[in-house]
Amino acid sequence: MEEFRSVGAIYDGLKGAAREKAGAVEVLDEKTLRGRPIDSLVFNAVFNSNKEILNESRRLIRFLASALGIRPASIHNLYMAMGRGEVKGFTVPAVNIRGLTYDTARAFFRSAKKNNAGAFIFEIAKSEIGYTAQRPAEYTACALAAAIKEGFRGPVFMQGDHFQINAKKFAQDKNAEVNDLKKLIKEAIEGEFYNIDIDASTVVDLTKPGVVEQQRPNFETTAALTRFIRENEPEGITVSVGGEIGEVGGKNSTEEELKAFMDGYLGALPKGMKGISKISIQTGTSHGGVVLPDGTIAKVKVDFDTIERLSKAARDAYGMAGVVQHGASTLPDDAFHMFVQRGAAEVHLATGFQNMVYDSPSFPQDLKKEINKYLIEKHSDEKKSADTEEQFIYKTRKKGFGPFKERIWTLDEERRKKIGAELEARFDLYFSQMNAMNTAPHVKKYVG
Q1: Does the pLDDT value for residue 286 go beyond 60?
Q2: DSSP state of 297
Q3: Do residues 342 and 311 make contact, with C-beta atoms less than 8 angstroms apart?
Q4: What is the pLDDT of residues 359-387, one digit of tens each?
Q5: Of 67, 69, 284, 433, which residue is 20 to 30 A from 324 by alpha carbon distance?
Q6: What does the pLDDT read at residue 101?
Q7: What distance, in Å, lies between the first and last C-alpha atoms of the chain?
Q8: Which residues in the chain are classed under CATH 3.20.20.70?
């Protein structure tokens, strides 16, 4: 990949493919653009050390995408239609990409085109932004460039996943912790994340005597952050906001908790302000799965009855799309059709794709060993006394994506093609299992 040395070099790299004209960007030859020019542009949008060149590369990707009918969008209106029962019968896959981002997003778009899918989400969690070294504007640039590369058309849904309140910091200084999250939300919106999942379930206080008081810190904080989002969203865009009532890995959520949260949340919002469009619950899963001593993942039983009951309550009583399932990518393949049958609105998938990249026969073994060595040297303080080395490596290898980002990004083309094909097949399976094929017409109708 070529690192541009000047802003002029960016435009030299686009010769014959696109040009800037009268303050806009005109695509001259899309086929040419989808070759080396877009590859070079996105590489510089991620890795160029010159901030001016990096930001100009990102700006041009946005403009080129727009010229081709590709734009970041909010899924809010589609979810409201799902809440009204006008659209149903599928679950939206939301994918967290921790590394090899451009190639993974390309694989997702190839699968989406093949399956005529429009309802799917690219997301990244607050924690992942840190350890994968991917800020929102960069992540959006990668997704839009991948859409250009693969000839996709239509809205692209970028999402801030688990924009989470840190319970310990919240207890020490509530205002400071909320303000820190507001800064991230503002950065995300400026980076064209028009879908944001607020997670204040971490401050649910189970020591309180009733469910309403237990959920109060959660719904009051979520309402305050919703107000902040509404005050900062661009004109003409209603950011899709999600809430959460049960921290993933904790006890399973109940209808009583859903009602306590929603009634309190809606009461805390200014009259007439649009609220959340979906609600995350706990159903028995955990992020990354439960790691066994040999480094494999234990089978997890998902409480699909809870998904069905709470999704119905979310739609019937509050007009939301339904519930969101986290921590699902390590579930057995034959479990995913159940999310559709039980009415889940959205399923979040992350660790499974990370595992596919690391464990692919095409991923260099010497690089994998180097990453494992780095994890042992730099993160040994995170190793629990009962952990085997295999458990420790599995639980921490997500933190290898940031320090080795460029090394992974620039694997030779043949290796990346093979890994991309494996990922594409997995995305095909998810679109099929979650009945998310042929959702492009729904997106066109409700999102535009």
Answers
A1: no
A2: B
A3: yes
A4: 999 999 999 999 999 999 999 999 998 88
A5: 69
A6: 98
A7: 35
A8: 70-356+414-446
Joined together, the tokens standing for residue 213 give 């008081």
Q: Give the position of tokens 């778009």.
A: 109
For residues 199 and 165, the answer to whether their CB atoms sit within 8 Å is yes
Residue carrying structure tokens 């899709």: 240
Q: Which residues partner with 193 through β-bridges? A: none
| Confidence at residue 334, expressed as pLDDT on a 0 to 100 scale | 80
Report d(CA 355, CA 394) in Å as an integer: 9
Whole-angstrom CA distances from 161 to 51, 212, 298 are 26, 25, 25
Tokens of 28: 């001259």
The token pair at 228 is 């902040």
Least confident of 131-145, 164-178, 387-401, 407-421: 387-401
Instruction: Say if residues 154 and 116 touch (Cβ distance below 8 Å).
Output: no
Q: Where are the beta strands (DSSP E) in 276-370?
A: 278-281, 323-325, 346-349
* % of the chain with per-residue pLDDT over 70: 95
How far, CA to CA in Å, does 441 sit from each of 80, 225, 447?
Answer: 16, 32, 10
What number of residues does the chain have? 448
Rounded distance, CA 423 to CA 446, Å? Answer: 29
CATH assignment of 70-356+414-446, given 3.20.20.70, 3.40.50.670, 3.40.1620.10, 3.20.20.10? Answer: 3.20.20.70
Cβ atoms of 170 and 225 closer than 8 Å: no
Q: What is the pLDDT of residues 206-226, one digit of tens each?
A: 889 999 999 999 999 999 999
pLDDT per residue as tens digits for the range 344-357: 999 999 888 899 99
What are the tokens at 373?
Answer: 């060595």
pTM as predicted: 0.94
* pLDDT for the residue numbered 443: 98
* Contact between residue 234 and residue 189 where contact means Cβ atoms under 8 Å apart: yes
In sequence order, the 6+-apart residues with CB closer than 8 A to the CB of 21 are none
